[in-house]
## 1
Amino acid sequence: MNRRRFRAALLLATALALGAASCGIQPASAGRGPGTIMIDTANYPSTLDPGKQYDTDTYSVYRNIFDQLLRRNPKTNAVVPWLATKWRQTDPRTWHFTMRPGVTFSDGSPLTAEDAAYSISRILDKKFGSQQYANFSVIDKATAAGGDLVVHTSVPSPTLLSYLTTLSVVPKAYVQRVGDKQFAVKPIGSGPFVLQSATAGSEVVLTANPKWWGPPTQIRTAVFRAVPNVASRVADLQSRKVDLATTLTPDAADQIRRDPTLAILSTPTERVAYLAYNTIKGGATNDPRVRKAIAEAIDYDALIKNLQRGYAKPINSMATPLAFGYDKSLPDNHHDPENAKRLLQEAHAVGAKLVMATSPSFDPQVVQAIQGDLAAVGLQVEIQNSDQATYLKKVQDPSHEWGSIRFGKWSCSCLDSDGVIYPLFHTGEIWSSYSNPDFDKIVEQARETIDPAQRTKLYSQAFELLNRDLPGIGLFQAYAVYGANSRLQWTPDASESLFLDQMKVS
Amino acid sequence: MTAIAVPARRRRTRSLPATPRYVAGRLGQAVLALFGVTTIVFFALRLSGDPARLLVPEGATAADIERVREQLGLSDSLWHQYLSFLGNAVRGDLGYSYVQNRPATALIAERLPYTANLAVAALILSVVFGVVIGVITALKRGRWQERVLMPIVLVGQAMPAFWTGLLLVLVFSVALRWLPSTGYDGPLSLLLPAVTLASLSAAAIARVTRGAVLEQLSQDYVRTARAKGASTTRLVLRHLARNSAIPVLTVAALELANLLGGAVVTEVIFAWPGIGQLTIQSVSARDFPVVQAIVLFASAVYIVINLLTDLLYGVIDRRVATGGNGGAA
């Protein structure tokens, strides 16, 4: 074959390959104009129906289409009015919320307390099968009365307002008319943005809602793109394809920091990286001295500085300073390998074998670093890595036969100690391999106590017990790490929200 | 490699009307294979994890999980679930995605055009490059052309897709800014993922082509053709191409079947919203209905492509279709 033919063949191949692209698929988004922002997230939203799913990447998109009943102040994290302008309790279990007047959905229909009540009832409805049910299960019923939203809880609930910041209000009449399935595809909300298009698995395009009740947003169009691979998200930032990329690893952040036209935006979140012990069937870890030895064997500074590249903060318990009930008087974690060795000798546990259960969802470098730290004081750690579904099945099984220690990251999206230590350590909860009736009594009481001062006192007692028994150790407070280019002005918040009305692009 | 070329020979004594019967037989086998594959996948999936645990919020209780299981129909007995799956599947209903709450078939249908475009583009690139390189390295055996091209082919095959893909992105998107790094923004977006995939398939095709051409070159008719003064181009196009086509077609068909099943790694790197990405998301979320539907689809594609390949042999080489003697098959 001569050279000309060879070249012709190459050209033909390329042309055919590109030609094939034109059949059947449409380019989802055009170029970027002023007021347009392109955002890379790790996952495509699982649904656009805010009653169903609650995961971060799904939230990020639909919470711009809908208004929430309440929001948090992004700087102070305090619960602030949003669709509900004020609220009061008429008895310990009944709350009245006054709705903002003059709010309409993007189809022009008015938003009322009826819609807010329906949005809650829908999540509580067993047939609807909301995966957010656990966040609202304390609510008995929600009704509309005299223009107010009235919420009745089964027990007095100090965390109700926290969870109501995650409630997006849907249009009752529209949802009932089109049905749940159609609503998830063509959602209508009252939020600052409306859905323009969605390309399954690829991207969602939102445009500013001209009928929104709030101040006009500077962003006119937002494109959320699903890019699962973190290196690809970094490449998108570097090639100027996107303005913002979420969920970056510390390594990726290092790469971005080297590019003078890009910036890292980061903030401490309520997410705690922790080590939980099996205190029931953990073998060596049934002994509190071994648990203490492990806590002292870990080099916390190295975890934070070397592995997290500084995108983490030291903590003193399972709660971050952002959580209600955090007790700053507790001593910080400290690294004392010599004392760890002494404790292990005392417990006759030198050379003991520990199984560490983990899944690829959890940073393997941290897991390996812990394995190394424990080897240095004389504990042999066997890492058992299984995929997330299998891992959950194993560690949540009531038999407690999952090993001795496990690493995890926890966020209740509620900024409250109840959402952390109750599910992790209360007897019989699926995550708990610890049992202490005194601790159970304190946290049960705390979750039904409205008075903040009294609650704070109860959590101090609870944390004191946890520090004594050590069913788990908080390793560090994790940061949310985003990469952005210089077009974007935005300050991320502790709840990892992505509200477009708080962003500006030049 | 599957037994593709054999049946035609077995039916040596039969004449053409055997073909419909042959196709019917193969279709019967296909249905059986699909049934077997889906049964295995159905039970294997349910042994490995519980989708309800992945769907609930972190602080959920055992009762919350049970509530989700019940709603998804997972608290019924395994046999009950299996029988209702089979019953629905026969009626063409493969169930609803647990995560997205939409029909599994609709999810696949949405993703298919992306995967099909990528697969076809990659296949064209790999066949053209693979065949050209294969023919050149065979004709120029022991010469510098072979010594230059063979290592390239081997490197292409040895480099994993995640590495090739990222290298291409770094060069063509980040450094040169010629091509988009991820997603689908028009035909140019197809180039990098297609080249990534083709670098794997082209190597396989090049090696098979080389082997087939070398085998043909040792045949008497080639010597005769050369003795009659046929040029190399004429020799390749008139004689070698047809006679070496069957093994090349076999490999190309298998590659296409693989590509249509979803190129998982490449689709993830390039954020290409095809079947491959859907597969990985569904498996990690234990979205049973979607995983089952994908497996069913991928198996069907495999079976249909193999069947079509068998039939194509007959077009290329009449001796296969008529069950005549000998032949390259």
## 2
Amino acid sequence: MSHPRVTGVGLTPFGEHSERTGRDLFAEAGLAALDDSGVDPDDVEALFYGNFMGELAEHQGHQAPLMAEAVGLDVPATRYEAACASSGAAVREAVRHLRSGEADVILVGGSERMTNIGTAGATDALSIAADDLYEIRAGMTFPGAYALMARAYFREFGGSREDLAAVAVKNHDHALPNEHAQLRKEITVEDALGAPMVADPLGLYDACPITDGASAAVLTSAEYAAEHGLGASVAVTGTGQGGDNLALHDRENLARSPAASEAAEEAYADAGVAPDDVDIAEVHDCFTIAEVLAIESLGLCEPGEGIAAARDGKTHATGETPVNLSGGLKAKGHPVGATGVAQVVSLTKVLEGESAWADDVGDARVGVAHNAGGTVASATVHVLEVVA
Amino acid sequence: MSDKARDGAFDDWLDAIEDDSGYYVECENGHGWLPPRRVCPDCGSRDLSETPLPDAGEVATFTEVSVATPQFSADTPYVTAIVDYGPVRVTGLLRGADPDDVDVGMPVGIGVGERETTGDRAVVFRPR
């Protein structure tokens, strides 16, 4: 099978851009990706675009054609929505189209405008990834849902708020050299433990910030990249997706994320790799506990062992399997619909050797991206490899 | 409150809980769900029957929410819990206990209360 190549990537700075419209954010990222790729824009055949809360944040549905227009493309454009895994789902569909020969050049991306509606507005908008009747009406918030999972995890496997704080400290450290990151600030375990509670046992420093931003990547068939001398060295070699009951209470185990495990197994089999082959990972750490669940689902740790990984240094840039070298959602920021593609952008840069952490991970050949929606009722996993 | 249409099976279910006759739907393989369900997501069975909700459940996990949505702003802080009723679990507000005294395994009964912020009905658990 010939694997689609990542030929160009683009990001806006992630942060508070409350007065910038979604279309302007996406135009910046999309044009940057097109310029980076060297692809003739006339060759782009489609836009696959991720966005979650556009109706609530900007009163704007039907965003995909608007975003295609914003980057100067007159192509079929479709929005993918899978809560926080929206653009991970867009990447997956692009990969499948490119592999099947349906297309040779696809622009994938996502954007989200969030800070313009304030903390309460964003909390409300994020909550609708849960079951409105049976969860939201019982006071479930997005941090609340992960707090329910964190307490269940502690109960089943042990662990403490200190262990979770170590995840936040690590990801803040990773974000320091990332010019696109929202929170470039060193923190300590004590800072995290002393921060105000959001939903116990999760405090403010266990949560990703509210973020405006956009991401984009040009994916092409291997044949197109070769014919046009694009020299793209990174390919998407595996894709997987998993699903689960929407409501957390309907899951068999409240301390696991089986949809991500299914996505990982499918993506690894697709790429012909095993968890031991993974050199680096970008995972969906919307909350510190989410990174713990993610690395267990990816098979980087056994169930119950993920809680100690950051504390023990295993997932730091200098450790065995660096996780979230970009700073993750936690410190890089989480413009929801942009996150899945932003993970692909970050992995591509590291695998191409363009990373502030290159001295630590310069020989990385296999990266994995884990993008999760809601309490992981949706999950996509992609394997990226250096192929040239 | 706006003049909204009822959410059929959900509001019927709340009505039943208010009448102390709460139920869930169960397939012949013992998988329990909250209504409405036409098919069991676990086994595909379409033979679902209403089964009485046990008198008391046990707290499976809980959180005290300090940062809420605007629809719960006046309720903050409040406790949301997932309660285990055997074949089915239910999410609701947990009232009538100091958050520091709530623990996993705590037995609770189910009822219906009002959201302080909006007056909307909500599932409310109380210690047994």
